[in-house]
Structures are given as structure tokens and as C-alpha cells.
């Protein structure tokens, strides 16, 4: 019985669950206000009042206004999905499977929130700049994942190139989906693009 559940992630405690609910509520209300009033026209004070929390609480969870848009748990889900892949798969296969798993598991609510966030990232320069800055952190995480998966040092040129290529494909697929009303195209486009990368980029 214990062995069956040995690989399951530990369940969050009551305090962590309450914090997660508060963060989700604040972001949900912020996205609604951004949609109804516009990003620039909505203040942190209005978001705090609508969420019935203090501005200090808002900033505790979201240090900047742009963070209210760019924050999600997709990176954490993807990392978990990567670690769950069989050891015999190569890095590209691992990434493809992880993306399929994570996007295939998104609920309608998740998809709707992601669409709202994407629209703001495409439309608002401040938010797009914050998202691109966040890519630096994501790239470092991907470098570490590739290094762990391959057993190579994180500063190995092959690790850096592989991580950078993966991020590049992801970013190019995201920009190619700009303006789409559905997220359904992104995982398909990413999957096709990463397969093309694995085949050596023939044109």
C-alpha cells in the first residue's frame, strides 16, 4: 500500500492551502478587473478592496502589478511532469511528453484564466517585458533539468544549447499563437516544432 503512493507529491498543509486559495482569489479578481476596466486603469488598491484584503497582502503574493498577470504554476507542473518521465527517454522526448501531460490536464477554468493572461501579455508592454524577464529564471531551471537528466554539468555547452533551443521553440510557438482565442493550438504547435528540432531542423 505504501509503495503505491510513494511517488505522490506531499499534500499541502492547511496553512499552505489557505495561502494558495488567497493567491488564486486575488489573481482571479485582478484579471476580471483588468478585463473590465483595462490594465492601466486598475489600481492595486481597487484589487485589494475587491478581494477584501489589504494592499500589503496583495504585494505579499504579487510583488509587482505585472506579477498579477504572469504568475502561474505551469512551471512547477512541467517540472513535476519531467521528473515523472521514464529514464530511457531522451531530453526532447521528455519535454514533449511533459508538455502534453500538463496541457492535457488543464481544466476549462485553467484554460480561461490562461487565455486572459495571454491576452494581457500580448497587449500590455509592461506585462510582456515582465514575462520576458521571467524567461531568464525559467531558462536557468531548464538548464538544471537538462543537466540532471543527462548527468552533464550545468555549464556544459551541450546542456546550455539544448535548454536554449527548447526555450526558443516554446517562445516561438507562443508568439505564433498571438491573437488566438483558444490555447488548443499551442501544445500542438510546440509538439510539432520540438519534433522538428529533434530531427535536425531540415528545411
Q: Could you please describe the fold and organization of this structure?
A:
The structure is a single chain. This protein is mainly alpha-helical. The chain has 2 domains: 14-63, Arc Repressor Mutant, subunit A, CATH 1.10.10.60; 72-198, Tetracycline Repressor, domain 2. The protein is built from 10 helices and no strands. The protein has helices at residues 14-37, 44-51, 55-61, 67-70, 74-83, 91-104, 108-123, 125-150, 157-176, 185-198. Helix 8 (125-150) runs antiparallel to helix 9. Mean pLDDT is 88; it is low at 1-9.
Task: Pick out its properties.
single chain, 203 residues, mainly alpha, Arc Repressor Mutant, subunit A, Tetracycline Repressor, domain 2, 2 domains
Amino acid at each position: 500500500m505504501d509503495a503505491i503512493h510513494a511517488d505522490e507529491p506531499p499534500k499541502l498543509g492547511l496553512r499552505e492551502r489557505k495561502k494558495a486559495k488567497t493567491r488564486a482569489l486575488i489573481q482571479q479578481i485582478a484579471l476580471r478587473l483588468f478585463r473590465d476596466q483595462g490594465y492601466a486603469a486598475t489600481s492595486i488598491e481597487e484589487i485589494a478592496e475587491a478581494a477584501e484584503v489589504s494592499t500589503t497582502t496583495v504585494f505579499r503574493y504579487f510583488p509587482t502589478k505585472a506579477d498579477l498577470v504572469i504568475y502561474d504554476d505551469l512551471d512547477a507542473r512541467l517540472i513535476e511532469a519531467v521528473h515523472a518521465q521514464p529514464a530511457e527517454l531522451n531530453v526532447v522526448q521528455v519535454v514533449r511528453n511533459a508538455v502534453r501531460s500538463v496541457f492535457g490536464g488543464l481544466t476549462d477554468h485553467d484554460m480561461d484564466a490562461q487565455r486572459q493572461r495571454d491576452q494581457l501579455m500580448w497587449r500590455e508592454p509592461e506585462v510582456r517585458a515582465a514575462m520576458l524577464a521571467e524567461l531568464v529564471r525559467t531558462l536557468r531551471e531548464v538548464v538544471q533539468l537538462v543537466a540532471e537528466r543527462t548527468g552533464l554539468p550545468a555549464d556544459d555547452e551541450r546542456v546550455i544549447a539544448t535548454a536554449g533551443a527548447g526555450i526558443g521553440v516554446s517562445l516561438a510557438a507562443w508568439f505564433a499563437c498571438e491573437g488566438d482565442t483558444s490555447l488548443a493550438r499551442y501544445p500542438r504547435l510546440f509538439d510539432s516544432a520540438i519534433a522538428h528540432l529533434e530531427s535536425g531542423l531540415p528545411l
